[in-house]
């Protein structure tokens, strides 16, 4: 059995080493394809990325630091015979003997191909089955049509889809099997979306039209490229099977999400599919892993590591992946002795606590011991101000739907209310008919 998984990790450096190890152990796959690693060449050039028990193959963005990026992890006893970065040949090193090749035909210009591969969105690793046929795993992080640059990024996304299709088709035409997996940034059918809205508008989306042409839910005719949706082949009618949620709106708690992470198999390979599952219990990202199990056997002949392996990226001393992670504070066994001050002059006095200040306050006029003095009336406004300050901030208002404390938010959209504070229901976003989801409560916070 061969277990293959995909996971948009949303930033590799946001994990500690122990957190990542725990997540990979939970996924428990022979090949794990990660997207949105956000590790770029300016970080990697002087360090090697290694994972315990895995060899890794990275593609990094060449246009922005800390952006995009994918990585394919293969168990140490499962060495690919070839590995390559990018969907076209523009990134292929000269005289490299272990490239996957089979690029297919496309009408895209060389400049466009360079643009499409410059964001670090694809890594290919190739294995050989026991019957001698090649099996190519294409790990992709497909572009998103960013609303701020919608027309430009939509065209970029569709060209990326076109290039992906051409490469997969060429590999199948050459007599091999293909697995395309990763974050496709499109939910295919209305069943894959928590709120598809108008179905005609939903299905006319250009990304979905591409998926309609290329992706099917069952074994298809081998005469043309048809990629089988592994999850839908096993679970054709399962609803609310989502892989991505808006964590800022706590939508994961109500399972109000989309399915945009896929494992797609070439038609002949889909006959080997045994099981597939969405691993929503694995946390750490706004996506969750998806895993498939194939009944195939790889050739057992030992092969050298392909040159793309991250072991060969090191310049100087080899370092492990732990160097990239957020440091974990280590408890100290004993407190370090304080060093004496070099000068005792002009030392600022320690800040007096509020309690000590009140205890040492000047006597009010009503407490004056001077005879024949009429005390001034207490200032009620000042007393209320002190009382409000000492009692802390006001509690948030209760939401109208659940009568629970609301949560304060800040308006981030540019406009007249930018940076203004407001209160909303603390529960996660969800369907209106779900009583556990967020109610419509909204209230502006008082202006300071």
Automatic annotation (TrEMBL):
Residues annotated as catalytic: 141, 183, 287
Residues at the site labelled Interaction with DNA substrate: 287
InterPro entries reported for this sequence: AP_endonuc_1, AP_endonuclease_F1_BS, AP_endonuclease_F1_CS, Endo/exonu/phosph_ase_sf, Endo/exonuclease/phosphatase, Znf_GRF
Keyword Hydrolase tagged: yes
A single cellular component GO annotation: nucleus
Enzyme class: hydrolase
Residues noted as binding Mg(2+) in the record, renumbered to the chain: 8, 36, 183, 185, 286-287
Region span, Disordered: 327-347
Domain annotation GRF-type: ranges: 399-448
Site entry (Important for catalytic activity), positions: 261
Protein family according to the UniProt entry: Belongs to the DNA repair enzymes AP/ExoA family.
NCBIfam families with a match to the protein in the record: xth (TIGR00633)
Full protein name: DNA-(apurinic or apyrimidinic site) endonuclease
Protein source organism: Cloeon dipterum
